[in-house]
Write a structure and sequence with these properties.
InterPro entries: AA-Vitamin_Transporters, EamA_dom, EmrE-like. It holds the Pfam family EamA. It is a multi-pass membrane protein. This is DMT family transporter. Keywords: Cell membrane, Membrane, Transmembrane, Transmembrane helix. By secondary structure, the chain is an all-alpha fold. The chain has one domain. It has 14 helices and no strands. The chain has helices at 6-17, 20-47, 55-77, 92-115, 119-127, 129-140, 148-165, 177-200, 206-227, 237-263, 266-270, 276-288, 296-313, 318-322. α3 packs antiparallel against α9 and α3 (55-77) crosses α10 (237-263).
């Protein structure tokens, strides 16, 4: 009896990763992990005595986290193999572009922006990254069609994000380029990285790409932090533990995310990012003991709007079935 071919097994895996329930499960697991990173980063800063306004030290923390995340992702994928997952020499430009968009530009601008913008406005602007991801995929890279259904679903989900952040914080005042402007740049950079991984993963192992881009991007962030004088105020085993956990979060969540982006339209995956603020609020309450200032009905309504937005974007579209888009462009 002839054993199943590689093509057959690859096709079965592709089919599984394109199933609605599988996309929902893995996307929500990724967002839950990323949501847990929010309170754990705060705990890491506390245990290592890092002032959140000390950008170089924050960059050092982030760089070490992402370097370790890449090493963990590559080591986990290499279990059962005799060598770490490799990226062909001809594809290293893809690693560099992903590292620049996903790790270096996004987090440099994000951390500086957060330090210079009110928390509520920053959270709402950061929540717009899902919008940007769908717009970039449709209008810049032509990976899918931008129709009224997707726009409406994004609007509904974004309303949930805004509602989850209406806690009486500062929504007034003057917006600054180094504050809200930098967070906006970080959101656009995140959107570009989602489109790039969808394209690059068609020809290369998405887990290998994500692992190596974390190593490259984390190394750059670590060097930036060290050159600018970043340091840990103290070395605490709990802080090192948090750093290790955050590395696992990045390695696992982004690897799952990359696999989903390889086998699905960008909009079908990134719409789940609207659940991040909900997970962040709940987990911050549980892990940090932060009181949730939102009434229960406001939290429930925000969650309902986010879920509705996800459902609307994932509704089947008969027009797309009849006239599929061409394969993603690979010359980047």
């Amino acid at each position: 009896m002839t054993p199943p071919s590689r093509t057959t097994s690859e096709g079965a895996r592709t089919s599984l990763l394109s199933q609605g329930w599988c996309v929902c499960l893995l996307a929500l697991v990724s967002c839950l992990l990323w949501g847990s990173a929010i309170p754990c980063i705060k705990l890491g800063y506390e245990f290592l005595a890092i002032d959140t306004s000390d950008v170089p030290s924050v960059m050092l923390f982030a760089g070490m986290r992402f370097m370790l995340a890449g090493a963990i992702a590559l080591a986990a994928t290499g279990i059962g193999r005799r060598r770490l997952p490799r990226v062909p020499r001809s594809s290293w430009h893809k690693v560099a572009k992903l590292a620049l968009a996903q790790t270096i530009v996004q987090y440099v601008f994000f951390y500086i922006g957060v330090a210079n913008a009110p928390g509520v406005r920053g959270s709402i602007i950061n929540g717009s990254s899902t919008f940007f991801a769908i717009l970039v995929a449709a209008l810049v890279f032509h990976q899918e069609r931008l129709d009224a259904r997707k726009v409406f679903g994004c609007a509904v989900g974004f309303t949930g994000v805004v509602l989850a952040n209406l806690t009486g914080g500062d929504l007034g005042g003057t917006m600054t380029f180094t504050g809200e402007g930098f967070i906006l740049i970080a959101s656009v950079s995140s959107a570009v990285s989602a489109a790039l991984i969808h394209i690059f993963a068609q020809d290369d192992d998405p887990v290998a790409l994500s692992g190596w881009q974390f190593v490259v991007g984390g190394t750059v962030l670590t060097c930036i932090g060290l050159v600018l004088g970043g340091q840990f105020g103290q070395i605490d085993p709990r802080g090192i533990g948090m750093l290790a956990y955050l590395a696992c979060v990045s390695g696992v969540a982004y690897s799952l995310w990359s696999l989903l982006l390889k086998h699905n339209p960008t909009s079908r995956v990134v719409i789940y990012e609207f659940s991040l603020p909900i997970f962040g609020v709940v987990l911050s309450s549980l892990l940090l003991g932060e009181a949730n200032s939102l009434p229960w009905y406001q939290t429930a309504l925000a969650l309902l709007l986010v879920a509705a937005g996800i459902v609307v974007v994932n509704l089947p579209n008969q027009k797309d079935r009849l006239s599929p888009l061409p394969a993603p462009r690979r010359r980047l």
